[in-house]
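Backbone-to-sequence.
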């Protein structure tokens, strides 16, 4: 079974640059779930994609336009989202901010 340490401290945990406007930090995982922090600059974009994982996202800060299965909505601090497996989704950051994403099962591709 693949799993993270029990305690993951921000200052000891590396960030992975996804593109110019986004970076991620894994906060914990096992085979069944994963928690990830995503830091966005204004204009940062997660292009529309789909994956086999269920995903919930929480907006810690900022303003984002999400596209879930062709439906676009603006979300802000305190809002949440759910994406079913294999449903196309993407995001554009309108005001710099932070998302917390959960995935089930874990994203093995994030560990490479």
């Amino acid at each position: 079974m693949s799993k993270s340490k029990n305690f993951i401290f921000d200052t000891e945990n590396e960030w992975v640059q996804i593109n110019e406007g986004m970076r991620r930090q894994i906060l914990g995982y096992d085979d069944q779930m994963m928690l990830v922090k995503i830091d966005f600059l204004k204009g940062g974009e997660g292009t529309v994609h789909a994956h086999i994982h269920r995903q919930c996202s929480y907006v810690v800060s900022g303003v984002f336009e999400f596209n879930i299965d062709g439906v676009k909505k603006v979300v802000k601090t305190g809002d949440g989202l759910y994406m079913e497996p294999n449903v196309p989704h993407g995001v554009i950051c309108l005001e710099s901010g932070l998302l917390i994403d959960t995935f089930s099962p874990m994203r093995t591709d994030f560990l490479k």
